[in-house]
Structures are given as structure tokens and as C-alpha cells.
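[Automated response] Your request has been received and processed.

Submitted sequence:
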Amino acid sequence: MEMDHRRLNKLRQLLNQADDGLVNAVKARMRLVREIALVKEKIHLAVYQPQREADMMARLCAMGDKDLSSEEIRILMETVLSISKNAQTRWQQENVRD
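Generated structure:
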């Protein structure tokens, strides 16, 4: 029983590390998104690029497997993309006011 509790605690520590890595990866992605937003603004390109989004979603959903299905990847990326598009719009608006 004690060994099971130690194993559980170790697994939770590993999960915490994975979660930290996930958040840090999204932060790194958002730094890239900010740069992309500024470039899009300079070349007068809309924030939402449907073909780019469809291509990216197809590429990522193809990575689905027993650990993370294509549908779960789609749900995850829809959330990430929503955050990214909202941030791009906000950054472009802030840049206009500067």
C-alpha cells in the first residue's frame, strides 16, 4: 500500500512536469504568434487565414493515436487557435494605438 502511494506521488510529479512543459510550449507559441501578428499587420493580411488553419489542423490531427485521438487534438487545437487569434487581434489593435 505504501509503495502504491509513493508510485502515485511520483506519477503526479511527472504529470506536473508534463503540465509545466505544456504551458511553456504554449507560451513559446504565443511569442511566435505575436511576431506573426506584427508581420501580418505590416503586409495587410487578416488575422484569420482559413487555409493555413485547415492545413495545420489536418497535419496535427494526423498525429492522433491511442494516447490522444484526432478528435481530441482537434479540440485542443481549436482552443489554442482561438486564444491565438484573439491575442493577434488584440496585439494589432494595441499596435494601432501606439
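Summary generated for your ticket: The chain is about 85% helix and 0% strand. Residues 2-42 form the longest helix (41 residues).
If you did not submit this request, please reply to this message.
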